[in-house]
Amino acid sequence: MSQQATGLKQPAAARRATLLKGPQSAEARRRERLGWILVLPSVLVVLIVALYPLVRTIILSLTNARLSSTRVTSFVGLSNYTNLLTDPKFLNALGNTLLFTVASVFFETLLGLIIALVIHSNFKGRGLVRTAMLIPWAIPTVVSAQMWKWMYHDVFGVINDLLVTRLGLLNTKIAWLASPTLALPAIVAVDVWKTTPFMALLLLAGLQVIPEDIYEAAHVDGATKIQQFWTMTLPLLRPALLVALIFRTLDAFRVFDVIFVMKGTAPETASVAVLARQTMIDLARLGEGGAMAVIIFIILALFVVLYTRLVRVEEG
Amino acid sequence: MATMTAGAPARKPIKLGQIVNRVLFWIMIVMILVYTVFPFYWAIVSSLKPAGQLFDTPVAYWPKTVTLENYQNVFENPNFGLALRNSAIVTIITVVLSLVLGSLGAYATGRLAFRGKTIILYTVLAMTMFPAISILGSLYQMIVAFGVYNRIPALVFAYLTFTLPFTVWVLTNFFRAMPGELEEAAFVDGATPMQTFRMVLLPLALPGMVTTGLLAFIAAWNEFLFALTFTQDYEGARTAPVLIATFSGKTEFELPWGSIMAASVTVTIPLIILVLVFQRRIMAGLTAGAVKG
Fold it and tell me: What is the complex's ipTM, to 2 decimals?
């Protein structure tokens, strides 16, 4: 395992030690070269298809570039960004995105935690429940959006049927997705349905590494179940919870599919990603849309920094 | 009796409280199952209803008559076959490329020492959380410039942006977790690092590669934003998710919900089968990729 540690974080000193060992130095050099040869194709692909376009987007966001035109583009400095600060369409989309992110992540975490705690106990058919919970996760977002659109149908939808005809909770059928105030919460509910099971399974994995005997000890000491949850389960679950939270926040903040399929580019639900795509591709205003895309990237990058601090690249 | 929890009396009468707890617990389980499964159940039921019953109130929760006419309609649409073909080709090429490039790269980052490894790993980790929208416009122009707009390679390139970093990251962790003795033994026997990789480590990494391949498959199969933006028609490279999202009926006012549900179910079935067959591996992969730390 020694060669694995070399060249990770100990820089010059360790390397020199390897090189000075004489006969091994040729071997070490060979391995170093092999390492680069093997990783090079992946690095090249990532550079070409991801990092280069990213840098290009950042540069274009400082220009008045059009998507496909021969017109000469010129630098406009930060004006695309400063314009966005007062652009009601952008601020509206940013508000929708924040609302979507906070609401969906909150409900997913809460429901996911409850479900994880319920299925953590031993019972017959637990495997079946866990399998069933993978289904919403595996269904394509586009499909789940269409499924729910049909369920939300104002006349023939099963949700109105359930709430009005069967349970009598509502007096009249509601056009969920046509309502400017209910459309976004309705879409949040779709996202919550699709990702809660995933969240629950991640948290379940976190629960399973908590040793059983501490609960027995707490029980002997007379702690109630609720006390046990707040003083033991929750603190011990914190790492899993934190990682799951960050993952979901990243995902929710760049939301596109579910909103686009259910409501297109309608302003009452459009997220920043929806608006950015519309501006860049449909309206061909690459510079302006690029600025929105860069803003999403920066906000997410801050989250990624947070995440990489929690999950170390080196182990042990 | 010996297996019972220490301290528990041999047999005590079941209290009412316990029964209530038990009942509440099972109610919760049933609620969780209904919540997670019902929407997909509803898609299947709707896809099997004849047009008349689909637009019937009150809604029937069980089809009175079952028909396959919606599926027939979907498969008679030539675009659907093309979309499925495009989805399959794009997904398979993407997954194979990711696994080949990714396993070589992950062997290097997981097992070999070389300069710049740490920065590569950090980049890869950051890339797994990359927002696709931030490269959409630039990638569009590059794809047009390379002359691959509306063609399979456009989507393969685009999909590698998320499948490749993910594959490298998860497989690196798999390679790292292997015992070093095997490698040392092979080394002592005079095997070169490449021989060690091919004959010792790769067979051991196979389960990890199956898991990673599955997760990459699901991600590529479900992708929508790139497919919508970089393709134009089904003869070209439009995939099944785009077809489902942009389904339109004969009239503008009433969408053909029966057909949409039939297409949705058809596209989802391969994924459900994969999940059912490989659920253990998928769970292991998800937790390895996400909650490692």
Answer: 0.88
